[in-house]
Amino acid sequence: MHHLLKRQIDRLGLGVETAPDASLWKQFVERVNASYAQSDETRHLFERSMELSSREMQELYDRERSANEQLEERVRQRTADLEGAELAARSSEARFRTTFDNAPVGIMHTDVSDDRILYTNPKLSEMLGYTRDELLNMRTDDFLQPEAVGTDRPKYREQMLKGEMAVYSSERRYIRKDSSSLWVSRTVSVARDASGKSLYLSASSRTSPSACYRRTAAEWSMP
Prior knowledge:
The protein contains six helices and five strands, in the order H-H-E-E-H-H-H-E-E-E-H. By secondary structure, it is α+β, with helices and mostly antiparallel strands.
């Protein structure tokens, strides 16, 4: 016998083998009906709770899946952007290097603090007679006449580093590796990063026959 049914029979003082009178039978039926009703309500609440839990779990799963998909899409987009930027940077660097290395003028990048040569192009080596490795172990003063060392700096360096001057041009006499002289027209500018910090000085030099002629004529005219 089910324990619930036995509990109701015991509460009414009934026996299993004796028939109850009408009053007790009515009470018995009412209590059994109430037990079934309570059981149905309990089952309904349980099923409702399970339904809500399942729905909430599904909603949570859907939200997390959507968030993951959005994150994956952002990662894919960011990766594509980085790859595109890297490709553009490599392409830009390749164009710069091609232009720099094939320029018809001598170009050098120098340290802003001590004029140490950081980078040169082949044309400058051709003009001065030094190899690239030799130039990278030199300063700009090393191929100037001793009396010309430092004469140009006060005219442009501080102003240029402060942003008060964009470009400075002058005529300079370089001393080649074979000790011969080379007059050039030199243009200096400063390269900066995105924050405005000075990175290096860039100087381009081209041979200047007119300067050489003027200087030679002046020297010959001296008494």
